[in-house]
Amino acid sequence: MKVQLFVSKDLEEPYAEIYTDNLTDNIQKAMVLLENDESDDDVDEGNSILAVKKGSDIVLLDFEDIFMIKVEDKQTKVFSQNAEYSIKKPLYQIEESLDSDFVRISKSTIVNLRKIKRVAPSLRGMMFIELKNGLKDNISRKYLTDFKKALDL
């Protein structure tokens, strides 16, 4: 991608223009980063959005709207209250960008702690989790300690 930077002292406010024939994930990230560029050093604000796809549309989801992120059939899916989205990033990369409200509960699933409805014992030492939107999954033994620590249990 070709990038040009022009510095001018005559501008009241900085602005950016992007010309492209294809809206890629990297361009979308750049747009989010540029739009959230604030001088008050509020680092968390710019990192509280996840760019996902619904069909051919790109949707920017606030972290607070995300219930679960799960890999199913080699595709990473993001679940909100009433919708399902897709994202091309692997789960570990998404996990790195999330805040402390999110915890991994299995090799293939991350949940938003604020969206948990209930947790109950399940089979073979695992725990069962139900989210407020009705989604259900198991917390594997491997991740149970981290899950309890995230809940201060």
Automatic annotation (TrEMBL):
Annotated GO MF terms: DNA binding; phosphorelay response regulator activity
Pfam families: LytTR
InterPro entries the record matches: LytR-like, LytTR_DNA-bd_dom
Domain HTH LytTR-type: 50-153
This protein's name: Transcriptional regulator LytR family
Protein species of origin: Methanobrevibacter ruminantium (strain ATCC 35063 / DSM 1093 / JCM 13430 / OCM 146 / M1) (Methanobacterium ruminantium)
Lineage per the UniProt record: Archaea, Methanobacteriati, Methanobacteriota, Methanomada group, Methanobacteria
